[in-house]
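Reminder to self: keep the SMILES exactly as supplied, no canonicalising. Ligand is zinc ion.
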Amino acid sequence: MSFTLQNTLTVLLVLTTLGGGAFIWWQDKQHNEAVTALEGTIDEKNSELVLRESVINELSKQLEMTSEELNDTVDRLSGEKERNDEMEDQVRELAGTVSDLDKLSKTDKELLQKYSKVYFLNEHYIPESLREIDDEWKYSEDSEHQLHSKVLPFFEKMMEDALDDGVELWVTSAFRSFDYQSQIKDSYTITYGSGANAFSADQGFSEHQLGTTIDFTTRGLNGGLSGFQTTPAYQWLLDNAHKYGFTLSYPEGNTYYVFEPWHWRFVGEELAKDLNSDDVHFYDWEQRTIDQYLLHIFD
Ligand SMILES: [Zn+2]
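Structure tokens returned for the bound complex:
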């Protein structure tokens, strides 16, 4: 019995020992397998990371290219904008030139023409539009005196300012048609014979036919012209008429015509002022110099 028990105990001990060893081995094996699996996963993740990194590199390269292209595009666009701006300027300039040319083509060239005994305004010429001068500016209210409609505002401003300065100016003659002038000349010719040209001469007549020219009288002359150069009205015109675009066509001592202190022609503010500041007269300048003022004659 005791032998059997002892044997049995021994067998149990051996079995227990064997069992424990087997368990440890199994446990060890399980652990190793887990480690291997984990290592595999890590490898997998690593290669995934490498792949992502290369994708990122690729993408950032593409981005770089894209931003370069963007910069190029921005450069190209700003270059194009500059060209467009330049083009716009040229178009605007051209449009200005065209509108100037258009304006010039619609402006009567005769308005700044110099007349002489050889160059004379055509007998069929009539101004583009005439308007009756207000009675208060006429010497005789019964008379009809017409002026170029675009000259009228300049004329009226001058007359009002003269009056404000206490200067009395009255119109005795403005627009004269060719026919009317012929009648005057005929009557002069009858009265004075061949000397008529000295009174009713061709050069001054052309300016009246334009509708831009006025003969003035003032207090103390009984409506006449003679002696006008001694009056305050004449002095006022000498000092101020250019501000309103009027100029004395035939000044004292000139070489191109007789002295006509009462005879004032509208040539535009720009030209009248320039003549005044240069201390010269309309007929002193070359026609081509005067022509440059035509565009702005009514500005
Ligand atoms: Zn006159």
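Points to follow up:
The longest strand covers residues 213-217.
The radius of gyration is 53 Å.
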